[in-house]
Every structure is written in C-alpha cells, then in structure tokens.
Predict the 3D structure of the following.
Amino acid sequence: MYKLFVIGVADEILSSAGQKVLTTCKHIFATPRLQKIIFDPTAAIHNISPLQEQLQLIKSSLLRGNVGILASGDPLFYGIGKKLLLNFPAEKILFFPALTSIQRACALFKTSWDDAVVVSLHGRNSKHLPGLILQNQKTLLLTDNTNNPGTICKCLHDYLSLIDDAETARAITVMVAEDIGLESQRLFSGSLLETVQETFSPLNVLYIEHRAVPKNPSIIFGLTEDDIIHSRGLITKNEVRAATLHQLSLPDSGVVWDVGAGSGSISIEAGRSHPGLTIYAIEHKNEELSNIKANIRKFGCYNVIPVFGRAPEILSELPAPDRIFVGGSSGTLPALTELADNLLPADGRIVINGVIEKTITEAPLLLRRHNFTVQTTTLSVTRTACSNKTLTFNPITITTGSR
C-alpha cells in the first residue's frame, strides 16, 4: 500500500528523514517557495494549492506510488494535516514535523510559549479581536494579508480608545518576528501605535503581551448591584438578571445584542461567563454609556462593545445576532421583533423585560405574530435583610421568544 508522506520544513531545509522518504515519492506537492528545495529530478512536482482541487490529484497519484507533501513547520499545527486526515485514511499518512514558526518566534522573543494563547487568523474570520486578545497576558498570532500586525494593533488601539482605556494601551508590548530563518529576518518591538505605522512581511508571527491583564475572577457569575457601576439605582436587579440570562440560553460563541443596555449589567455578566461571545451594548444615554465603559474596564470584559445610538436605527451597522435582549425599547418593540424574525438563526432567542403594562402586553403578541414560541415569566422580588427590613421591588415580566 502506497503512503502519503507529509513533511514539515523549517529554514527551507529538509530533515534527513524527510529527504529519505521523499526519494521514494513519484509525486511531490508543495508551494512554489518549498519546491525550490526539492532535488529529485525523477519525481513529478505539483503545486499544493488550490488544495481542494488538488486533493483529487493526490488521491489518483497515490494509486501509482508514494506521494510527498511539503509543508511549513508542523503540518498538524494550524496546517494542512487536519485537512488531509479528513480526506485520507490515517493509516495511509505519515507525518514528519519540523519546528513551528511559533516555537522559533518565541526563541527570538525570548519568551515561553506553553503559557500563551495561540491564535491563527490565516483565512479565518477575525471576529472581535480585542475580546480574543486582551483577556490574555500572552497572545501569539499567525497572521495573514488581511489580518496583518498593523491591522490587528489598530483594531486593539481603536477599541481601547472607544472604552477610554489609555492605561491598558500603555500596558501592551507588541513584538513581530518576520521572515524567520531567511536573510531578510527581522525582529520588531514597539507599542500598538508604533506597530500600526510599520510594514511587515506576510511571513510573520505576532506576539502581544498585556502586562495589566485582569486576573481570572474567582466568581464567574453572580455580580451584585453594588459590584456594577450604575446611576441612581438604574440597574437590572440581581434576581432578574439571573433569570434573564437563563432565558437567553447563551451559546459558547456568537453575537448578542443588548438593546437599551443601561449600565451594561446583562452584557457584563454574559461577557464574563461566556468569553467567546461578542456582545454589543446599545445605549443612547451618555451617562449610561459611560457606566458601560467603566464596567468593561473594571471587569476586563473586552468582548463587550459599547454602541452609542438608538435602536432600531443603529442596529443595521451591527453583525447579525444569535441572541437579543431588550431591556429598554422606548416604543420600538414592533421594529425590534421584526428584526429578530429576520435576523435570528433557527436556534436564536429574543428576551424582552417589561415593567410597564404596554410592554408586558405587546411583547408576546408581537412575537407570536412573527411565529416565535413564546413564554412569559413574572418575577416578584422581595428581600429581607438581617435586620428584618424588607425590600419589595416592582414585578418584572420576562418574555422569551424562541424558534
């Protein structure tokens, strides 16, 4: 049975084991750059890309002899290996890994990499980069032409400016290793803004060190009203917040709209418990928007994005949601429920909290009109302190629309 040899390359040098197996191959697939190190005049040389189209040629070549594939670094580390394992039996493939660009870059940066978060942006949706990066002390990124070091650092700088967080910007050091192992190899170190002003080779590894990253909270869920910065008692009460988040049934990743976010208490609790989410806290009052920004800074909830404006007009500028929470609608519920119907996925949810009779009555009617399955829950919260003093809050009705 013929074999598929997947050989990692570092410094454009083949290992002795890689050289040996390559001499047994009748067909070799590689990028134009790596084709230059192939010295077997008898093998047929092919471009590896576009990979999806070349898979069929690799399969047919395997019927006639061994096939070699050259890849940079470790083929099983954000490389071609995963794709090959999906298309060929594992027993047909033999891997010969080389050092990864991450390992070699960290040697240049003089930092360990076992305690860093590694992210590949090669051809991938970058999502909300601040939420991906700023929660880590050390982040190593494999970039591409779209998500290059300058673009990434500008995104971080702009977000930190949005939340008025100059302190965090000053606590970040950026390093870039480019063209590792080549004559043009260069090592750069600077601030976010200094990185934005530089131009880098497409072959690079980006390292972002955040020296003031918030410590992992010992309590992930269960902030109190006193913990969250707010104005004049305008905050979703603890018990209501817990029930609301339960009704939202948040996914591990995706987009959440918090419409009429107020102090941002729902956004902050959701962001802390689900760091893979990107949460847009929409608020049209400047005082409340300042509270949202302050809470993002206080809790290091960099996956929360404050948005100044009124719904539904501002919502057209945002990515489509997986969940919608409406804490304040100001008479726009018909438009918001129509948007929910048009934009939410098959497993999406919208949760509407109401105190006034109009919202309590209107929300379920509108959701049913748009073919949501509707559930309403009314919470009456009474608290008794050690002094036997009793506090009773206005009832809140939580209306949930699901598909």
Observations:
- The CA atoms of residues 341 and 370 lie 6 Å apart.
- The chain is about 30% helix and 25% strand.
- The radius of gyration is 27 Å.
